[in-house]
Amino acid sequence: MQKIEHLIIGGGIAGTTAAETIRQNNVSAIIAIISDEPYRLYSRILLSKPNFFLEKIPFEQIWLKKESWYAENNIRLISGKSAVRFDPQTKIVVLNTGEELEYGKLLLAVGGCARRWGIPGAERSGIFYLRTLDDAKAIMAAVKTAKHAVAIGGGFVSFEMCDMLRLAGVDVTLLLREPYYWDPILDETSGRMIEAVLEKGGVKIRRNTEVGKIIGHDLVEAVEINGGEKIACDMLIVGIGVFCPFAWLEAAGVKVGRGILANEYLETNLPDVWVAGDAAEFDDVILGEKIQLGNWVNAQMQGRTAGMNMLGKKEQFRMVSFYTTNGFGMTIAFVGDIRPLPDRIVISRGSADAGSYVRIISKDGEIIGATLINRTQELSAISKLIENNFKIAGHEKEFADTGLDLKKLLL
Ligand SMILES: Cc1cc2nc3c(=O)[nH]c(=O)nc-3n(C[C@H](O)[C@H](O)[C@H](O)COP(=O)(O)OP(=O)(O)OC[C@H]3O[C@@H](n4cnc5c(N)ncnc54)[C@H](O)[C@@H]3O)c2cc1C
Fold first, then answer.
1. 49 & 136 share domain
2. Whose CA is nearest to atom 27 of ligand 1?
3. pLDDT value of residue 273
4. Do both 182 and 194 map to the same domain?
5. What pLDDT score was predicted for residue 155?
6. Same structural domain for residues 120 and 223?
């Protein structure tokens, strides 16, 4: 059995960037990527963007690496196969085909999967999740004939899906379990601002709504909600979060919490095993606590750091991460740590009436995060303030005034 010096599980942006980083710094290392998807690296981000979804751009733009890239860089891509077991003592990874691969250093860049819905009727056709290119292809095909969609859940992907479905001319009813959009991550003012643009864009929103079952024969025909009311639909888009199937890693002794636990070097508790991307719950040196993120730039930069560290460097991962989206003419951005925990203080900047609204989140007197609606021009300044551990305590009133130019605070 040939020993693979750098074995990477997961061929998404984190895993591929790690492989690329290793190759850039070591021309002869043996590198392999195992990917359970049957594809080379593609843009997961584009899957929920209208230009791709509505086929306004060529399908080929989804690919981020040419097929020839892997051979040119001498990176073996083992696609369409899953890693199902590994033994940190013998350093052997077993694939679902029974193949065994010996590694020197191992990277877990396994991302996450769309959480499946366990309610009665969830096995019917016409129920879609959006995480992979195959998921997107299935939705794009269904939208061509669909008339009424029911979307479940709030969040970035749901917001973008509603936009795309409306642009495709499909009627959309959005069901929220919560009293307003993105509760509890956002406050009610922000949530209502988003709801207002969704409704203006023709999305019907039902709040405080629990689905009891999915009705239909082979195909979904309706959902039954609390009180017994039925909402007809011919497609159902479920966005209820991301699930990380870690049992096989725990069986190998990898410590997991919400994600795979790691220090600031992205090292797991096992020797020669690193983690990068959405799957990592790592020590964030800027925030001073463990955090798990789900955004593209974070995954890419972690792939880079993990790759360097697999080469024997000792680089800390240090980044203020952000996520932006737009739909229905609204731009939304999250930066840093926006978790609504009890030890946080929120300073509001702007207002729903003014059409732009920022929530600056502080902890122990320092800015740690922000949510921005229609005010993404301040994203970069806030990101730097977080990075600089800017002390906001005592300046709360100034920050609430949108006349204050945040860039000036960086001088
Ligand atoms: C529809 C959609 C839109 C998004 N839009 C944005 C956006 O606009 N901006 C933004 O910042 N972020 C966005 N994101 C989030 C972003 O795509 C992720 O943060 C990023 O892709 C994470 O990269 P990753 O490499 O960590 O994981 P992934 O991209 O999930 O890649 C992990 C890969 O590993 C594979 N894998 C898992 N387990 C195994 C195994 N045991 N064996 C083999 N292979 C395995 C998975 O199938 C997957 O291919 C979006 C996500 C989705 C789903």
1. no
2. 111
3. 98
4. yes
5. 87
6. yes
Residue 227 Cα, ligand 1 centroid: separation in angstroms? 37
E strand map for 179-308? 203-206, 211-216, 220-225, 230-232, 235-238, 242-243, 260-262, 273-275, 280-284, 289-292
The total domain count for the chain is: 3
Tell me what pLDDT residue 243 has. 87
Do 136 and 211 fall within a single domain? yes
Residue with CA nearest ligand 1 atom 7: 45
Distance CA 360, CA 381 (A): 12
**Which residues does residue 333 pair with via DSSP β-bridges, in sequence order?**
324, 372
Token pair 């992979």 in the structure block, residue: 132
| The pLDDT of residue 395 | 87
Q: What are phi and psi of 76, to 5 degrees?
A: -80, 120
Give residues (CB < 6 A) around ligand 1.
9-15, 34-37, 44-45, 47-48, 82-83, 109-112, 130-131, 157, 277-278, 294-297, 299, 323, 325
Tokens 């679902």 correspond to 96
Largest CA distance in the chain: 66
pLDDT of residue 146: 96
Residue 130, token pair as written in the block: 């959006």
Parent domain of 336: 329-410
pLDDT value, residue 373: 97
- Is the CB of residue 201 less than 8 Å from the CB of residue 328? yes
Q: Compute the residue count for the chain.
A: 411
Q: Please write the tens of the pLDDT for every residue from 107-148.
A: 999 999 999 988 988 889 999 999 999 999 999 999 999 999
Q: Read off the pLDDT of each residue in 230-258 and give the average, rounded to a whole number.
A: 95
Residues 53 and 132 occupy one common structural domain: no
Residue type, 125: S
Report how far residue 218's alpha carbon sits from residue 273's, in angstroms, rounded to the nearest whole number.
Answer: 44
Contact by Cβ (8 Å): 274, 109: no
- Which of the listed residues 45, 65, 130 should we mutate to test ligand 1's pocket, taking the one with most ligand atoms within 8 A of CB? 45
381 and 273 in one domain? no
Q: Which tens digit of pLDDT belongs to each residue from 8-24?
A: 999 999 999 999 999 99
